[in-house]
Amino acid sequence: MKSPFFFRAARLGALLLFATHSIAAALDLTFPTQNRALLQGDGEGFYMFIDRDLQGEKSTPWEGGQYGYVRDPRFTSGGLVYTRFHEGVDIKPLQRSGTGEPLDMVTAAAAGRVVHASNVPGYSNYGRFVVIEHQWDGCPYYSLYAHLNSLSVSVGQRVAQGDALGRLGYTGDGIDRRRAHVHFEVNLILSHDFERWHKLVFPSEINRHGIYNGINLAGMDAGRLLLAAHKSPGLTIPAFLASEEVAFKAVVPATNKFVLAKLYPWMIRGDAKGAKAWEISFTSSGLPLRLEPRREAVSQSAITSATPSKFPLTYVTKGYVSGTSKSPTLTPSGRHFLRLVSGDFQGTVKEVGAWVDGVAPRTMP
């Protein structure tokens, strides 16, 4: 039996490997507005509150503006569980006009290239929003800024850290002036074949955002990342994600549309040459963390394990997994999700319309 020291040493070695891999291009990230209350531990001064009605009891908790399962509470046999995942952080304005209009400018959190700028509020729950691609250590990451009142950049434009992107606002469904904020995300991208997948799964809907549709972007904890980047200037994304917990694992067929291994090679554990399948470790929101190549082919995606929970698995896996940790199974939305990630679209057409299992697709105010 290995000693505790062995495991501590192994974990330290993994973190050092991540750091060594990324010395050439450490993360350079800052806050997207002048609101820095989070640095003083003032969550209420940083996060925009949400309107909550829990069995007739109304409240406005600022905690609902954080990243994670912070919305739509529900009582279960295991206790109170929050069933709706919030992919980013909602940052409140510091300045308002006499009529309550927000005045804060939203700026680029890091240098990069504008890859998407949606200037029609009704095209998404994000309202007016901007996506910037950043290349950190040769890997693409995407910051997203939503609910803007106006945009001051266009697609293809190079921006420096701190350049203005637009004015903070409240465009998009479900937001009013009192709750004006910028919804900020830092994401990985899941697929380059998203538009084909979207046509198969949502044939009656128009995808106006190409591969930068929110469903195709997997967000990490932007609030915690901002704090970590401020505290540790040499931080890298792999090192940051090394502490994330795995909620479930799934095996998927290897296809030429599977881009995670190409875009984020730091995720790979083992020799990827000749892989016929991949076992992927995911967080509870479906953020991929590790890729393990398999030599045995699989005919379709399947769950291989799930972390035990006192709540139903559907509530703690974004609706992708059901059953128990001893016998977890994919839901229809889970199958669609893994087809998107793997690029294996076989069988998708037969299950069109089966995405929703009581869990809405990812775009949210």
Describe this structure in words.
- By secondary structure, this protein is α+β, with helices and mostly antiparallel strands.
- Strands 5, 6, 7, 8, 9, 10, 11, 12 and 13 form a nine-stranded antiparallel sheet that branches. Strands 16-15-14-17 form a four-stranded antiparallel sheet, covered by helices on one side.
- It has eight helices and 19 strands.
- Strand 15 and strand 16 form a beta hairpin.
Multimeric organization: single chain
Largest sheet: 9 strands, antiparallel
CA radius of gyration is 20 Å
Task: Count every helix, treating DSSP H or I runs of 4 or more residues as helices.
Answer: 8
Share of residues in helices: 10-25%
Please report the total strand number as a whole number.
19
**First CA to last CA: what distance?**
49 Å
How would you classify the helix and strand content by structural class?
Answer: alpha+beta
